[in-house]
Specification:
By secondary structure, the chain is α/β, with parallel strands linked by helices. 37% of the residues lie in helices and 15% in strands. A 7-stranded parallel β-sheet has the order 3-2-1-4-5-6-11, with helices on both faces. A two-stranded parallel ribbon has the order 7-10. Strands 8-13 form a two-stranded parallel ribbon. Strand 5, helix 4 and strand 6 form a beta-alpha-beta unit.
Length: 317
């Protein structure tokens, strides 16, 4: 009998890749979205998955989704992107991480104790670390509302794992991209811009600090890490990244090189977009997941950016 998996945020970048991955492995896949079937990322999968409408902040809706799907595995990926938090002083933003995670963990504890749970945390929990690279033992010091939300939910997962003995894991995910990414994220902004400039649809891109560096990987590789975390004998938290940092200039070189343009003629540095750099690079130490789960990224940074540009050319064309 095939396993069942419930994915919150199935219509997002990670959710769509995870759904494809699990279907290939023979899972019955259930998806929870605020409005079921609204995402074009899963249009090609709608005949093969079961979609449910529901808000992850609504405890009753989450409980209903768990009871109806009876999942062996739950992947809680639904989350606002960091830019949606803005500069609000309303501490209700914590709901997005902590309350939604609580709703799933509570439903598992009360109604589905056999279900294994994955929570999509973020490298933003580290904030401005005083050590690099970062691993599972690096102290959390979030400096954004998004980071605070993710850190709180990651601690909650650990609490349920230790106090209630639930099989609950958090993946501390470093930046991961793909052609399915929203343009609000920097790599997508660049690859989309390069494609549109090449096609004559735009003339320039405005960016901040071109020397800024990050650990960027491919989302399709990261969903495999999520799955592996729920296949182990003992649950735990894992840092997921590439362990390699690249600069914004590196993205520009590859993206504009792919379309045969000189990015120096197309990019305007906007001081309003420049942010204060971290004292130590944000880069993943993936020693634990490599050793315990035999996971490592398979898609190179250069290959990722080139794929994104090609897909953006198709979309813009």
């Amino acid at each position: 009998m095939s396993k069942k998996a419930l994915i919150s945020g199935i219509g997002g970048q990670d959710g769509s890749y995870l759904a494809e991955f699990l279907l290939e492995k023979g899972y019955q896949v259930y998806g929870l979205e605020r409005t079921a079937g609204s995402s074009p990322r899963i249009g090609h999968l709608r005949e093969r998955i079961s979609l449910m409408s529901g808000d992850v902040l609504n405890e009753a809706m989450v409980r209903k989704a768990v009871l109806e799907s009876k999942p062996d595995e739950i992947y809680h990926l639904a989350s606002k992107v960091e830019s949606q938090f803005g500069n609000t002083n309303d501490f209700g933003f914590l709901d997005d991480g902590v309350k939604s995670a609580f709703n799933f963990l509570s439903a598992i504890k009360k109604h589905s104790s056999h279900s294994r749970f994955f929570y999509a945390s973020s490298s933003k929990v580290f904030g401005r670390p005083d050590v690099s690279p970062q691993n599972e033992s690096t102290p959390y010091w979030p400096v954004s509302y998004y980071g605070i939300s993710k850190a709180g939910a990651t601690h909650l997962v650990k609490m349920y794992r230790e106090s209630d003995k639930l099989f609950a894991c958090s993946g501390i995910l470093f930046n991961h991209e793909s052609s399915r990414r929203d343009p609000v994220f920097l790599p997508k902004k660049i690859t989309r811009g390069a494609a549109r400039i090449k096609l004559g649809l735009e003339k320039e891109i405005r960016l901040g600090d071109l020397s800024a560096k990050r650990d960027w990987g491919f989302a399709g590789d990261y969903v495999r890490a999520m799955w592996l975390m729920l296949q182990t004998e003992k649950p735990g938290d894992y840092v997921v990244g590439t362990g390699i940092i690249h600069s914004v200039r590196d993205i520009l070189d590859i993206a504009f090189g792919e379309v045969g343009l000189d990015w120096k003629k197309c990019v305007i540095v906007d001081e309003k977009l420049v942010v204060q750099p971290e004292p130590f690079p944000i880069v993943a130490d993936i020693s634990k997941i490599k050793k315990e789960l035999d996971w490592k990224p398979e898609t190179s940074f250069e290959e990722l950016i080139k794929i994104m540009v090609r897909e953006d050319m198709k979309s813009a064309g």
